[in-house]
Prior knowledge:
By secondary structure, this protein is of the alpha/beta class. It has 18 helices and 14 strands. Helix 4 crosses helix 14 (about 410-415), helix 10 (about 295-305) runs parallel beside helix 11 (about 320-330) and helix 15 (about 420-450) runs antiparallel to helix 16 (about 450-470).
Amino acid sequence: MPMPVSRTADSASLRFTVRDTGIGMAADQFANLFKPFSQADGSTARVYGGTGLGLAISQRLVGLMGSSIRAQSQPGVGSAFDFTLEFALPATRPAAEAQLPAQVPARVRLHGRLLAVDDSSAARRVLCAMARELGFEADEADSGEQAVASVTTAAIEGRPYRVVLLDWRMPGMDGVECAWRIAQAVAHPPCVLMVTAFSRDEVLRTIAARDLQVGAILPKPVTPSNLVDACQTALGGGSAHPLPLPLDGADALQAYRRKLSGRSVLLAEDNEVNIELATELLQRVGLQVHVAHDGDEVLVQLHRHAVDGVLMDWQMPRIDGLAATRLIRQNPEWAALPVIAMTANAMAGDRERVLAAGMNDHIAKPVDADLLYRTLVRWLGDRPRQPAASAEAEPPPAAPHLPLELPGIHVPAGLARAFGNEELYRRMLLMFRKHHDRYLADFGSSLASGDLHAVAEMAHSIKGAAATLAADEVAHAALQVETVLRTAPVDEVKLEAAAAELDAALAFCRTGLDRL
Length: 516
């Protein structure tokens, strides 16, 4: 990362620093550091690979530019390398001409709010600086999840974003998924400009696969002139109307309905809040839904109803999802029945475990509607249909608008998880409040009696409901209880502390729920 060191009228010095958190070096190993085909420790090449040429070449190149590389290191902590270079400055221009980068026409002045989304803080800073120079009011988001929440909040507050600069490749939710979710979360989505360091054709293929439209695809590094051109083109020469982003949400829903309507599924889930949300999602695309609250009931319901597929929660009381699936596969009648796992843990190796148990696929919780629908189309799309689903019920009367903030609950994120349906989200919150006292009583009594299995089940149930509602502090506290219980032997002091944290988080959350 370059940092300014000094500046004169005609030159500037910059220091470049590279840091790592590797194995580090002792002082006596520095002697061989910059020698060709040599490494500080001969064992390093055997363990980590490498020829010992990298630093030698770098030192030579920096030397040709009139400087040298300095090194600092600490064994087991890491190393830092830096060098300083002097650069000539161009003749200064009048201040009025220097307000924008040289390649940006001075006449360009855009307006409105812009959100820069990138997991790299340096990239976000650069994009925001450019956007502000062009006249935008710029904000940052470091992930797709944060971007969806920010766009939703801005729309609810009546200060919507006009443009979203969205990195295509990010950890977790990528740019295409983020763009799709934004389009579902707000009535009038902002114009999305997709930023990528990869092949434009590859980006176009992923966008087309999701039926998305974006204002432009910008190559990295983004230049001010490219950003100006993209904004002017996408916004229609600066008009106030953003370019429509994806296929309209209602059209997308109808496309899934054409594929899935008339089929039936068995939803195996023990959490009432999750049942409410999942049932709503499934019925929106014309699916008939039967519910089982544990593994035993799964088998009863399968004997009672002919279904096209099963959505199976991994962790349920009595018989869990894996064991229930093994029992299903023992019946030849259900040998080809699609079973799709749902789990809140989403850890490495989960997919292999569900496939080994006889399941067909795996999706993570909280459930993403588009992924759920696509997975169901994949496994149910070619199966014979049951009699058509009944007509949709009339929507209930509109409830009062939800508060923008509730203690312990991230309302915009939770509302986005309910796909902007305030009535559905309110019902889920009220259901959580209804069960709140039982959660506390059952959790407390199980803890007092030393029934750690019951404590773990309660913590898992609370975590699942809270995560669905975006009650993040409660979900995190419940996860901490689960984490303590996974250690053997269980540390009673840590368990008591984690339980107290969960109790406090639930009590704080209740103050918000009581306002509904």
